[in-house]
Backbone:
């Protein structure tokens, strides 16, 4: 369901940027599916897969909450807001482990599944992006409980993020962790005025760029290029970190090289997931495409002197 949540947010963002009616219709269709079919109203969560029985992830629920909020901002459809708020509140109740937040719960019992070294099956600073839904609802509805939860997780993420990278001896695994660490940096863009957040953004951008460029000749993910570029642009716009234009241009150029042209409409315009050595991996990834399209559009705006749209639209 995480990918579906990203699609809702991306289509809503495309409509806002272009006025395209098809994008809005697509965003509404995706939001309707999430609310009317994928949402487990009894449990108050979104399962990992639909319609198969499956666990539920803290991260996935948070991304879906933000996707629904993105469509709600345009349409003001009450049930999008209702489900987003209920899910956000349920995340806090169900996933809270006291010292951190469980990454995965089994359903229907909502018992915590065993954690392991894979970042997606452990807690960590990356979870802060999922908590952006808490931050957004807290500001829209003056929701004090969610505001407190956001502050708590942000503090935990800031205290523990130094340990996240490199996190593995295998360079390919490190590249995967760069993707997750960028989630943490993206979340900090919501509060760049905080000295602690601004400092972490500045340090984090340098850390990600160093490892990305070092490992890229062996294995590189297109979404890491896209995420880093988006972070650079919004960090510059907020005053948290001046833009390194030369390096940003290098990253934008390499990101654009992942876009495909094909007579197959399922592939045409999409972005490859990554590259090993000199060989592109032979499949298109929808989330990589979402991030890349947004990053390259933001880069174009920066190059033409147009102000960036609000950071809340970052998918």
Residues:
């Amino acid at each position: 369901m995480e990918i579906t949540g990203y699609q809702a947010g991306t289509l809503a963002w495309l409509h806002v940027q272009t006025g395209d009616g098809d994008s809005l219709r697509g965003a509404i269709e995706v939001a309707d599916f999430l609310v009317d079919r994928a949402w487990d109203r009894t449990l108050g969560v979104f399962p990992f897969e639909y319609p198969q029985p499956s666990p539920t992830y803290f991260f996935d629920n948070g991304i879906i909450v933000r996707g629904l909020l993105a469509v709600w901002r345009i349409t003001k459809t009450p049930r999008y807001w209702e489900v987003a708020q209920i899910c956000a509140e349920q995340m806090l109740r169900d996933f809270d482990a006291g010292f951190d937040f469980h990454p995965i719960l089994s359903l229907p019992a909502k018992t915590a599944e065993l954690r392991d070294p894979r970042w997606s099956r452990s807690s960590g600073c990356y979870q802060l992006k999922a908590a952006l839904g808490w931050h957004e609802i807290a500001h829209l509805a003056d929701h004090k409980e969610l505001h407190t939860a956001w502050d708590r997780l942000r503090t935990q993420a800031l205290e523990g993020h130094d340990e996240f990278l490199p996190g593995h001896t295998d360079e390919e695994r490190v590249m995967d962790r760069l993707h997750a660490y960028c989630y943490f940096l993206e979340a900090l863009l919501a509060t760049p005025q905080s000295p602690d957040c601004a400092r972490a953004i500045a340090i984090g951008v340098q850390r990600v760029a160093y490892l990305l460029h070092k490992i890229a000749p062996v294995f590189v993910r297109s979404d890491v290029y896209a995420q880093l570029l988006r972070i650079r642009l919004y960090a510059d716009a907020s005053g948290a970190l001046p833009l390194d234009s030369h390096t940003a241009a290098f990253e934008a150029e390499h990101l654009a090289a992942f876009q495909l042209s094909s007579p197959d409409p399922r592939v045409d315009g999409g972005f490859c997931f990554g590259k090993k050595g000199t060989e592109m991996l032979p499949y298109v990834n929808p989330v990589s495409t979402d991030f890349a399209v947004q990053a390259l559009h933001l880069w174009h705006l920066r190059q033409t002197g147009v102000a960036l749209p609000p950071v809340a639209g970052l998918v």
The chain has a mean pLDDT of 96. The radius of gyration is 19 Å. The chain has two domains: 1-163, 165-315.
